[in-house]
Each structure stands twice: as structure tokens, then as C-alpha cells.
């Protein structure tokens, strides 16, 4: 493992670019940042609020899940998100031009449903994207939220999966026929079969949302964002007893890769062969890189 960058303000949402740089969100700073291969850190855009998940769209623009902002605590050398920001007024989906830094707000609502804390997103092969709404936690209450599907041109958004317990990471299988969603506080990874763009097949079970349980973590672990490798393994960033939980596509834990930060929040892949994993260690404000046994899945969108 090598340190690529330090001094970041709760980094999340890493995106590997074609020029070898990594663009990520600094949630606590309300900005999007580029990290060059030589470690030089450059500002890309000021989003305000709490920029969280990032993805490249088919138009070459960055799409951002903005959670509206957290409150923060610092303890034992860690920066820790703590509830909603005092000025929180809702979340949004933003489109960002990585060349100019222009920020445009695409969505704040899906019909009558306010976006509370959008967290992570993934584009499909049809020009649309799935995203999770993690919601917000308050002193004595927590939002009940779901998963949405939207068009990149701002023309359509709808809540497709509801209810879920603070969904966080989201990804697609290599063939695009399954949607994976990780819930934070239950530490459960769910799979949904996709019938058509923005449509899922409803399964049975007691959960209410019709998903198939692939894996539930035990112990002192919660799930954050995720990535899928070219072999179809679902690699879930895991906080608490921290690391990357690698879940086989048929279900069950294939392996666990420990990380040195209790707030290990996301993973993406880059490098000439796609086998360099970039992991955000958010509590200590670092981006690290390490060799990975499989290449990352080629995402819809362009780098």
C-alpha cells in the first residue's frame, strides 16, 4: 500500500481518470478535487453542502450525489461525520464540468419525495443512473429512504426501491442485469434483478423491498460505498473493523482486506491494467493505492 495523497477533508467518491489522475469529493470541504499521479492536489469545483459519490457520465461530465452536509467531530486524530449540518436543507444531484468547474443542480426532489442525503451512484448502459439516498440522522430520528433512477439530462427521476435502511454503496453486475445495494447500519448487501432501465423484478422475503440478501457482516462493521471488479465480485468499503469486504457474486464473503482507518469509505480501480485499487481512508484524510488481484469493472461513462 502506498499513500497517494494526505490532508484531505473526508475524501469519498474516487473516480480514476484516463490521464492517470483521481478525482474525488472532499465532503467536509464541500469541494471536488483532482489528485495528479505525482501527488499534486488541484481544485476542480466548489459544490457546497456535502459532495459524496461521484461518477463520470456518458457526456464526460461528473455527476455528484450531494448529501447536503454533515456536522463534524474530531476525535483521536479522526474526522468523524456526526448528524446533519446545522444549515442542512436537503440533498441534490449535481452535474459538474471537470474542465471548467461549473456546477449545475439537476435534481432536489423525485415528485413529492425530497432528496435527503444522496450518497452513491452508478451509470447503466442506457444513459441513466441509479443512486442511493442514505438519508439523515438526527438526535432521536433517522430517515427512511430508498434507491432512485434518473436520466442524466435532467428529464426524469423516480424512487424505485423503498424502503431501505440507510442505503449507501451501489453498483451493477458486469452484464448490467443485477443491481447491488449496501445498507450501512444493517451491514447487509442486497441484490436486485433488473427487468428494464429503471425497473427491478420484485422478489419475495420479509424485507419489503424485494431484494435478495447476498451477505451480512457480523461484528463491529458497517457498510459504506462499493465497487465491482471485472470478475463480478462486489467490493464493499467497510467501516469500524475497517477494510474492503469482497463478496462473491453468488453471495458470501470471499475475503476481507483490512485497512488502517476505521472510516474506509470507497474503492475504485485505475492503472494501465486496471489492477490498482484506490481506497479512500476518510477519517485520516488519505487516498491510498494498492495492487488488486483483479481489474476493476469498466464503468459506463468515460474517463
* Class inferred from helices and paired strands: mainly beta
Low-confidence stretches: none
Mean pLDDT, as a whole number?
A: 96
Indicate the CATH topology.
Neuraminidase
CATH structural class: Mainly Beta
Order of helices and strands: EEEEEEEEEEEEEEEEEEEEEEEEEEEEE
Fourth CATH level, the homologous superfamily: TolB, C-terminal domain
Any idea how many domains?
1
Give the proportion of residues in helices: under 10%
For this entry, what is the oligomeric state of its chains?
single chain
- Total strands: the figure is 29
Count of DSSP H/I helices = 0
Report the major sheet: 5 strands, antiparallel
Can you tell me the CATH architecture?
6 Propeller
Distance between the termini: 24 Å
Roughly what fraction of the amino acids lie in strands? Answer: over 45%
What is the general shape?
Answer: globular
Secondary structure: elements and pairs:
Layout: E1 2-5, E2 11-16, E3 22-26, E4 31-35, E5 41-46, E6 51-56, E7 62-66, E8 70-75, E9 78-84, E10 92-96, E11 103-107, E12 109-110, E13 113-114, E14 118-123, E15 128-133, E16 145-151, E17 157-164, E18 167-172, E19 178-183, E20 188-196, E21 199-200, E22 212-216, E23 221-228, E24 234-240, E25 243-247, E26 253-258, E27 264-270, E28 276-281, E29 286-291
Antiparallel strand pairs: 1-29, 2-3, 3-4, 4-5, 6-7, 7-10, 8-9, 10-11, 12-13, 14-15, 15-16, 16-17, 18-19, 19-20, 20-21, 20-22, 23-24, 24-25, 25-26, 27-28, 28-29
Describe this structure in words.
The protein has 303 residues and is mainly beta. It has one domain: TolB, C-terminal domain (Neuraminidase), CATH 2.120.10.30. It is built from no helices and 29 strands. It has strands spanning 2-5, 11-16, 22-26, 31-35, 41-46, 51-56, 62-66, 70-75, 78-84, 92-96, 103-107, 109-110, 113-114, 118-123, 128-133, 145-151, 157-164, 167-172, 178-183, 188-196, 199-200, 212-216, 221-228, 234-240, 243-247, 253-258, 264-270, 276-281, 286-291. Strands 18, 19, 20, 21 and 22 form a five-stranded antiparallel beta sheet that branches. A four-stranded antiparallel beta sheet has the order 1-29-28-27, with no helix packed on it. A hairpin with a 4-residue loop joins strand 28 and strand 29 (286-291). The protein is globular. The mean pLDDT is 96.
Amino acid at each position: 500500500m502506498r499513500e497517494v495523497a494526505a490532508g484531505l477533508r473526508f475524501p469519498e467518491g474516487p473516480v480514476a481518470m484516463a490521464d492517470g489522475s483521481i478525482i474525488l469529493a472532499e465532503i467536509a470541504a464541500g469541494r471536488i478535487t483532482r489528485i495528479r499521479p505525482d501527488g499534486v492536489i488541484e481544485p476542480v469545483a466548489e459544490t457546497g453542502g456535502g459532495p459524496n459519490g461521484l461518477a463520470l457520465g456518458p457526456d464526460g461530465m461528473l455527476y455528484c450525489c450531494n448529501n447536503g452536509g454533515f456536522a463534524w467531530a474530531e476525535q483521536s486524530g479522526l474526522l468523524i461525520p456526526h448528524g446533519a449540518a446545522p444549515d442542512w436543507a436537503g440533498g441534490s444531484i449535481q452535474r459538474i464540468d471537470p474542465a471548467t468547474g461549473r456546477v449545475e443542480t439537476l435534481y432536489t426532489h423525485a415528485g413529492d419525495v425530497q432528496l435527503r442525503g444522496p450518497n452513491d451512484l452508478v451509470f447503466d448502459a442506457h444513459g441513466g443512473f441509479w443512486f442511493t439516498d442514505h438519508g439523515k440522522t438526527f438526535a432521536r430520528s433517522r430517515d427512511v429512504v430508498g434507491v432512485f433512477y434518473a436520466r442524466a439530462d435532467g428529464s426524469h427521476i423516480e424512487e424505485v426501491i423503498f424502503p431501505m435502511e440507510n442505503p449507501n454503496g451501489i453498483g451493477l453486475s458486469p452484464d448490467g442485469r443485477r443491481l447491488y445495494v449496501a445498507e450501512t447500519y444493517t451491514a447487509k448487501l442486497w441484490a436486485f434483478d433488473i427487468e428494464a432501465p429503471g425497473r427491478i423484478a420484485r422478489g419475495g422475503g420479509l424485507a419489503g423491498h424485494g431484494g435478495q440478501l447476498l451477505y451480512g457482516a457480523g461484528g463491529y462493521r458497517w457498510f459504506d460505498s462499493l465497487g465491482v471488479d471485472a470478475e463480478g465480485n462486489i467490493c464493499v468499503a467497510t467501516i469500524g473493523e475497517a477494510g474492503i469486504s469482497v463478496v462473491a457474486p453468488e453471495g458470501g464473503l470471499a475475503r476481507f482486506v483490512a485497512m488502517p482507518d476505521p472510516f474506509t469509505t470507497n474503492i475504485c480501480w485505475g492503472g494501465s491494467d486496471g489492477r490498482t485499487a484506490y481506497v479512500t481512508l476518510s477519517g485520516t484524510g488519505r487516498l491510498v493505492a494498492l495492487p488488486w488481484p483483479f481489474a476493476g469493472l469498466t464503468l459506463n461513462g468515460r474517463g
